[in-house]
Design brief:
Layout: E1 3-9, E2 14-16, E3 18-23, E4 29-34, E5 41-48, H1 53-69, E6 74-79, H2 98-108, E7 113-117, H3 122-128, E8 131-133, H4 135-141, H5 143-152, E9 155-158, H6 161-176, E10 183-185, E11 187-190, E12 197-201, E13 210-218, H7 222-233, E14 238-246, E15 261-265, E16 280-284
Helix pairs in contact: 4-6
Length: 288
């Protein structure tokens, strides 16, 4: 189960809480808090990696069990990855507004606080009403990434206009830490019917340069593959990729030969083994 619970007792000691879980024959899930003494607990902190509907249901059941066993305690949620964040608008009539639905479920669960890491958009931030750890903070915590930038005197590259405001904040934060990095912005044209990327464009001379592409999520990686191919065609010496949420639903192999280094966090569990003999791989641990 990708959900952990830390209890803060009234005497200020902390302990992990074990959750027993099982599934009934009909498919329904159930949970029970093992050895839980609600009289001694002041608050609880739940860290949840929600990558499936089962995990979302487990979280809601655990929250209900805590509320019933210890009425009135403060239960906060650490949510490294906000599921459904990319469905943050209705593009075609008849579609669901999935991010709003998911945010409503979490808000209505009654957490005292929700903390997220690098939300996909301002829409998600407004819907969820959560405290956020921003991409700039994460990049500045990532020692291997900062070393890579300095070693290769790399520039930062926003994959599209939507990511440019985040990249500007990353550049400012790095500058405050003594690392100067030029910023470029690419663009992409999509098929309006399918959403597929038709072409990536960059009006800049990057010959001989090292560049770090930054974004919040890598799923199949199509955006980054096409952009890295363009950079190599334009003579870039080296291409790195930073994504906070590395789903890598097609694995790392499609990136090989185009992207030289990948930096990500453990906000999600990659859908395929995070390994490569060709690409340099680094992970920033958000939680021990």
């Amino acid at each position: 189960m990708d959900i952990s619970i830390e209890l803060v007792n009234k005497d200020a000691t902390r302990q992990a809480l074990t959750v027993e879980q099982w599934r009934f024959a009909g498919g329904e899930q159930h949970v029970r808090l093992a050895g839980f003494d609600g009289q001694q607990v002041q608050s609880a902190i739940i860290c949840a990696r929600l990558q499936s509907s089962d995990a979302i249901m487990q979280l809601l059941l655990i929250k209900d069990a805590l509320d019933r066993a210890a009425p009135g305690i403060q239960v906060s949620l650490q949510l490294p990855y906000f599921p459904y964040a990319r469905q943050d608008r209705v593009c075609v009539a008849g579609e669901a507004f999935s991010a709003a639905v998911m945010a409503g479920v979490l808000r209505n669960a009654g957490f005292s606080q929700i903390r997220c890491w690098d939300l996909h958009s301002a829409v998600s931030e407004q819907l969820l009403e959560a405290e956020q750890v921003h991409q700039a903070q994460l990049v500045c915590q990532f020692a291997q990434l900062k070393q890579w930038l300095q070693t290769h005197q790399a520039a930062l590259l926003a994959p599209d206009k939507g990511a440019s405001h985040k990249i500007a904040k990353v550049a400012d934060a790095l500058s405050a830490a003594g690392i100067e990095a030029e910023v470029f912005q690419a663009s992409k044209r999509r098929d309006p019917a399918t959403g597929a990327i038709l072409v990536s464009e960059l009006n800049a001379d990057v010959a001989g340069r090292s560049l770090l592409i930054l974004d919040d999520i890598c799923d199949g990686g199509r955006t980054f593959i096409e952009l890295a191919r363009l950079l190599k065609q334009k003579g870039a010496a080296r291409v790195g990729l930073y994504v906070t949420h590395g789903l890598f639903s097609r694995g790392i192999e499609p990136l090989e030969g185009l992207i030289d280094a990948v930096f990500t966090t453990d906000s999600v569990c990659p859908l395929h083994p995070f390994e490569s003999q060709i690409v340099e791989l680094h992970t920033l641990k958000l939680f021990e």
